[in-house]
Amino acid sequence: MTLEPIDPETAVELYLTERETELASTTLSSHRSRLEFFTEWCDEQDIENLNELTGRKLHEFRLWRRNTGDLAPPSEKSQMDTLRVFVRWLGTIDGVDPELYLKVRSPSVNPEDEAKDVMLESDAAEQILQYLQKYEYASIQHVTVSLLWHTMMRRGAAHALDVEDYNPEEQYLEVVNRPDTGTRLKNGNRGERLIALSGDQCLLLDDWIRNKRPDVTDEYGRRPLLATSYGRIALSTIQKYVYRATRPCCRGDACPHSRDPEDCEAMVSDRASTCPSSVGPHAIRRGSITNHLNSDIPETAVGDRANVSSDVLEKHYDRRNKKEKMEQRRKYLDNI
């Protein structure tokens, strides 16, 4: 085939213009940020025409990005997944071989890295919630995913909520330890707390309770906030909803794994966890905590809201890299 010359900056701008009607603004911004690293690398390598790209050069970029960015494996994966989508698009406009995107490799994430680092990025979370807001408003899946993201609570805490724990007038949820009636919190009584809610979150809960929540009780006569026609939602069902919602194809993104939706096993509802990009509830918690920290909310406030100590917050949940932390500290220098 005949390729048409195109420089990196022009290609990236054309790609972003193409996607701006498809992606949420924060997602588009993340794509721009990641691809700016790619254009910077192209400049360093004197690549003025993307027709020159090869599988080896793409691998060299991956190593360069890893070494210059202090990236955790999940962040490196996000970088390379975005690049793969970009290169796949580039093949549709005769900028590179149409099959070149297959040579863009993302890092494998081992179980130890998964336990420590995997999180739902804030741009992906916003895109997921926008999709649910538009197409599945006030559904049990929408309410569940929204609660987990906005409150940073554990799956067990969401499972333990009753309708009576929601105060719509003062806009908060009360998380209560009730071991004698089937819902013990992970930290017992130390996990009890009040969680403030936004007006939008309250509106969603109001619509769920008023219009869609089944009028059921559990085996103890309690009215679970998250309920199905069978009673209190199961912990495994919460996990299933999260896996479903976090598949990239279900929020409008191209498949980063080059799968055909017609044949992909992850498209079957109960097999959503087989999608390599889907994540579980703890990844939502970790992503939400990191997002709160990136928004300059004090660590003590984040820790109290999420029910996690400062030591555990730093060790297991704070996924900001050293440079991000430095830049946030810089903002306070003017006050000294």
State the CATH topology of the largest domain.
hpI Integrase, Chain A
- Strand segment tally: 5
Classified in CATH, the superfamily of the largest domain is Intergrase catalytic core
Count the DSSP helices: 14
**What is the succession of H and E elements?**
HHHHHHHHEEEHEEHHHHH
What can be said about the biggest beta sheet? 3 strands, antiparallel
Give the strand line-up of the largest sheet. Answer: 1-2-3
Shape: elongated
C-alpha Rg (nearest Å): 22 Å
Tell me what portion of residues adopts beta-strand conformation: under 5%
Uncertain runs? 111-116
How many independent structural domains? 2
The assigned structural class equals: mainly alpha
Tell me the name of the CATH class of the largest domain. Answer: Mainly Alpha
| Straight-line N-to-C gap | 62 Å
Helix fraction, binned, reads: 40-55%
How would you characterize this protein structure?
By secondary structure, the protein is mainly α. 51% of the residues lie in helices and 4% in strands. The strands form two sheets. It has a three-stranded antiparallel beta sheet. Strands 4-5 form a two-stranded antiparallel sheet. Strand 1 and strand 2 form a beta hairpin. Helix 2 packs antiparallel against helix 6 and helix 7 crosses helix 11. It is elongated.
